[in-house]
Amino acid sequence: MSLKIGVPSKGRLMEKTFDWFGARGVAMRQTGAEREYSGAVDGIAGVELVMLSAGEIPRELAAGRIHLGVTGSDLVRDKLADWNTQVAELAPLGFGHADLIIAVPAAWIDVDTLDDLDAAASAFRAAHGFRLRIATKYHRLVRDFLTRNGIADYQLVDSQGATEGTVKNLTAEAIADITSTGETLRANHLKILSDSTVHRSQATLFLARAADWPPAERAVLAALATQLGLTPPAL
Ligand SMILES: Nc1ncnc2c1ncn2[C@@H]1O[C@H](COP(=O)(O)OP(=O)(O)OP(=O)(O)O)[C@@H](O)[C@H]1O
Ligand SMILES: O=P(O)(O)OC[C@H]1O[C@H](OP(=O)(O)OP(=O)(O)O)[C@H](O)[C@@H]1O
């Protein structure tokens, strides 16, 4: 047995995760070819690296198939019901920043806030006979946010990528997606509603409450937490 840690298997998140652990004396590396999803950890005994899609790490944590995992705080909150009963946040890692926001066409000059969206949604329904469509892949986070803000006259439409294009393609009137530089929103003639930050996301190290935590794994966790300069979590 060993302590399994799931990390993003490609791209910027993978590289920055490796940098973060490496700077703390835990050297992670990809083994095999560039596209081969296997890895190893040096500098600490008993830790096994599992390379996974960032989007699948929340599910693997919830199932207890990995003990620890690095992924975006947005993905954990969206993919897991009552996320903090299933995982514990051990440390924000300071990279992978992105804001989940709601945006509407820049041409909607009277719509700048959630209250304006609420009014626009009612008017839209009266005019068109169906609810204003908001395209997103963040269903749970967006639904909860809109409910908390008293907005009900809308429907979510699923978009798993290129979400900003749905407005131009006439499959949605508004979108809820992550933004970092804002370039994609600008290029698609969309503007952010000023009070619509649903979540400020960053890459985060999570612990799986449902994983097996026999004494050997607890000891590895304690050693790893010390090495990383984290308070060892209570299990
Ligand atoms: N500019 C950005 N674009 C996309 N994701 C970003 C950006 N900045 C930070 N992130 C974060 O990266 C994470 C998504 O990473 P990634 O797209 O690799 O995941 P994935 O859903 O597993 O992708 P794929 O399905 O392509 O494997 C999210 O937590 C997101 O908030
Ligand atoms: O604010 P920006 O810096 O422009 O970044 C935001 C964009 O990046 C992400 O898309 P990604 O490239 O991951 O592709 P996707 O649309 O397939 O999710 C996100 O969904 C936005 O579209």
Polypeptide structure, described:
- InterPro entries: ATP_PRibTrfase_cat, ATP_PRibTrfase_HisG.
- The structure is a single chain.
- By secondary structure, the protein is α/β, with parallel strands linked by helices.
- The protein has 2 domains: 3-96 and 202-228, D-Maltodextrin-Binding Protein, domain 2; 98-200, Periplasmic binding protein-like II (D-Maltodextrin-Binding Protein, domain 2, 3-Layer(aba) Sandwich), CATH 3.40.190.10.
- The protein contains 9 helices and 13 strands.
- The longest helix has 15 residues, at 114-128.
- Bound molecules: adenosine-5'-triphosphate and 1-O-pyrophosphono-5-O-phosphono-alpha-D-ribofuranose.
DSSP strand content:
25-35%
User: Residue ranges: pLDDT <50 for 5 or more in a row?
Assistant: none
General form: elongated
**Range of helix content:** 25-40%
Summed up, the domain count is 2
Cα separation of the termini: 18 Å
Question: Secondary-structure element order, as H and E?
Answer: EHEEEHEHHEEHEHEHEHEEEH
CATH class term of the largest domain: Alpha Beta
C-alpha Rg (nearest Å): 20 Å
